[in-house]
């Protein structure tokens, strides 16, 4: 259940489901998702479902990760990515395959310790994780070609949009009781926003947690 062949079968299902970006599909195929979930759930690691990772958080379904990356990449080469919500580190590992540099922010310290350990095991070397409230982003090292948020904000945070490079994209879930996937692109004339399909993410919470 944890072999490369199993990952390739998962990717073929995602391709059949409409995911078309071959670089994103290759990234999903290369990351051993079973390493990022509890051992008791390893047999379900390559199903297209979200799974609990503790602390009220989840690892997103592979199709959700793929959809957000496909929207954010839009066929472009992306050099620097900001991820809000490291969680177990799975999405950061996938991001690491499509960018030179990934900066990830997580508010729960215990999740960071586990994510760092598993990323080392998966031989991911271009992800930097910071223990911080992710809501304001990382203005000190902006701009970013892509910003991906793994928790639902009540509205699009203007601070994050301002940290996009020209042509950069922000992909995030927005809403409280009902959520939508939102794509924001920075253009020469400001920001363009598209509201897409309904999604279901954990809420974005402020502050830090041990």
Folded structure, characterized:
This protein is an alpha/beta fold. It has six helices and nine strands. The chain has a seven-stranded mixed sheet with strand order 5-4-3-6-7-8-9, with helices on one face. The protein has a two-stranded antiparallel sheet with strand order 1-2. A hairpin with a 2-residue loop joins strand 8 (179-187) and strand 9 (190-199). Helix 1 packs antiparallel against helix 2. It is globular. The N and C termini lie far apart (33 Å).
Largest sheet: 7 strands, mixed
The DSSP helix count reads: 6
Rg over C-alpha atoms, rounded to the nearest angstrom = 16 Å
Output mean pLDDT. 95
Q: SSE order, as H and E?
A: HHEEHEHEHEEHEEE
Total beta strands: 9
Outline the low-pLDDT stretches.
Answer: none
Going by helix content, strand content and strand pairing, the class is alpha/beta
DSSP strand (E) fraction?
25-35%
Helix/strand layout:
Elements: H1 4-16, H2 22-30, E1 51-54, E2 57-59, H3 62-73, E3 80-84, H4 90-96, E4 101-106, H5 109-121, E5 127-131, E6 144-149, H6 158-161, E7 164-175, E8 179-187, E9 190-199
Parallel strand pairs: 3-4, 3-6, 4-5, 6-7
Antiparallel strand pairs: 1-2, 7-8, 8-9
Helix pairs in contact: 1-2
